[in-house]
Design brief:
The N and C termini lie far apart (131 Å). The protein folds into 4 domains: 48 residues; 76 residues, Sandwich (Immunoglobulin-like); 74 residues, Immunoglobulins (Immunoglobulin-like, Sandwich), CATH 2.60.40.10; 89 residues, Immunoglobulin-like (Sandwich), CATH 2.60.40. A hairpin with a 5-residue loop joins strand 26 and strand 27. It is rod-shaped. The chain is mostly beta strands and 309 residues long. The strands form 8 sheets. A 5-stranded mixed beta sheet has the order 5-11-10-7-8, with no helix packed on it. Strands 20-27-26-22-23 form a 5-stranded mixed beta sheet, with no helix packed on it. A 4-stranded antiparallel beta sheet has the order 2-1-3-4, with no helix packed on it. It has 1 helix and 27 strands.
Length: 309
């Protein structure tokens, strides 16, 4: 048995009945079937072959994750030389000569991430396919070393992970760079650092890290009175420790006989000059002060104060 395809003005020999028809042609062809030494038969046909490409492989169509009500756009990449209409999902919505489907995440989830699509051409030819959507969510975390610094001290900031396509750090004016995974900053005040990252699929994520600037913790920034006058005139009536730094204290005052007349660990509280409900004697008193800094280091001081009446 022999087969011969005659199409337009060309001839092609073939060993079977299958033949690939080119796209975008008004195609006239004949199939001649014969057996050597015997009769032949001819089948003439004319076809208009629609210039339509199938949908691209959407089995791994990835969309950056979003909230359920965000309108997403699925691009089908339809190639056609004729008019067409696209319906999808429950097939109640239709696009004409447009292959970008607007759809919400909640609709995709309701369809179990599988969106049936039908393409209807003007000659009533229908192409059906299913778009499988995978949602992608990325996450970034800022790591700071250290997280607490003194004014003018350097802090190193980096992201975990470090393989994103794009980086943008804020505020840029205190950074050595703002578009790389690891940056250095010198700050004068407590600062919130923000990083915005984008991966190769265009998905974005952000994180914030607060770096606290500590006030120098030293005795020169802590005021300890040497005298007070608890006479009720509203001036210097209370013996109190004052500090520019954020500290914790243990403050104890003793009389000349070693009796504890006052004790506090609250910077807002001080000694009013009374002991056991009565005005304390005027004269010299000893104090002991323990200071706990923000970085948990400790300072100690002791000395004398004078109660004046």
């Amino acid at each position: 048995m022999t087969y011969q395809w005659l199409f337009n003005d060309s001839t092609s020999e073939a060993s079977n009945l299958s033949f690939t028809i080119p796209l975008n042609l008004d195609f006239q062809y004949q199939l001649i079937i014969g057996e050597k030494g015997r009769c032949f038969d001819t089948i003439p046909m004319t076809e208009n072959v629609r210039g339509v490409s199938p949908l691209k492989d959407l089995s791994h169509y990835t969309i950056c994750d979003s909230d359920d009500t965000t309108r997403l756009l699925l691009e089908l990449n339809i190639v056609s030389d004729s008019d067409y209409a696209v319906t999808w999902g429950n097939f109640t919505d239709t696009l004409y000569n447009n292959d970008v489907i607007p759809i919400r995440k909640e609709e995709i989830l309701r369809l179990n991430n599988r969106i049936p699509v039908a393409i209807l051409y003007d000659d009533n030819c229908i192409l059906r396919d299913t778009v499988v959507v995978n949602f992608k969510q990325i996450q970034v975390n800022i790591q700071a070393q250290p997280t607490k610094v003194y004014k003018g001290q350097e802090v190193v900031l980096s992201t975990i992970p470090t393989d994103f396509k794009e980086y943008k750090w804020f505020p840029p004016d205190v950074l050595n760079a703002d578009d790389i995974p690891m940056v250095n900053a010198i700050i004068e005040e407590t600062t919130d650092f923000i990083v915005l990252v984008k991966d190769t699929d265009g998905c974005v994520a952000t994180d914030t890290m607060k770096v606290e600037v500590l006030t120098e913790c030293s005795l020169k920034r802590i005021f300890i009175p040497t005298a007070f006058t608890p006479n009720g005139d509203g001036v210097n009536d209370i013996l109190r420790v004052r500090s520019e730094a954020n500290i914790q204290i243990e403050y104890v005052v003793y009389n000349r006989w070693g009796e504890k007349v006052f004790e506090t660990n609250d910077l807002s509280k001080g000694w009013d000059g009374y002991y056991k409900g009565k005005p304390a004697d005027k004269g010299a008193y000893a104090y002991y002060l323990k200071i706990i800094c923000e970085d948990k280091s400790e300072l100690y001081n002791q000395g004398n104060i004078t109660l004046i009446r």
